[in-house]
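pasting for ref
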Amino acid sequence: MEALFTSTAVVALAEIGDKTQLLAMLLATRFRRPLPIIFGILVATLANHALAALVGAQAAAFLDSPVFRYAVGISFVAMAAWTLIPDKLDDEEAPRPRFGAFLTTLVAFFLVEMGDKTQIATIALGARFQDVVSVTAGTTLGMMIANVPAIFLGHELLKRIDLAKVRLIAAGLFLIIGLWVLVQTAGWIG
C-alpha cells in the first residue's frame, strides 16, 4: 500500500502545472469531447508508466542524456509552432481529424510524457519499491487526479475565452518550455 499511496501523491503533485496538464487542456479545447481524452490519457499513462516502472533506475541515465534533452526541447518548439496553426475544429461544422480524440490523445500524451518529471518519478519509484503493479497504479491514479479536473475546468473556462488567444498563450508556454530545456541542456543556465 505504501508504494500505491506514495506513487499517487508524488505524481499528482508533480503533475500540477506540468506540460502534460497543459496538453490535456489543449486537447479538451481542440476536441471538445472529454471522455475520449480521459480514456486516451488513462491508456497512455498506463502504458508509459508501466514501462517506466519496469525499467526502474537503469533508464534514468539514458533519459537524462543531452541528446534526449535536445530532442525534448526541439519537440516543444515544434509543438509551439503547431499550436499556432488554427485548425478546422474551431468551426463547429468542421469534420473531426481522422484519428479522433482518443487516438490523438493516446499518442500525443504517451510521447509528451517521455522524459517528463512524472515519468522520471515513476522510474525512481519503480526502483525504490520494486513493485511494478502498485507503482503503475499509483502513478496513473496521480495523473488522473491532476488531469481530469483540468480537462473539465479548462474546457468550461475556454468556452468563454477567444480560442486564438488561448492558442497564442499555449504556443508561448510550449516555446518557453522548449527554449528553457535547450538552454539548460547547453549548460548556459545551471
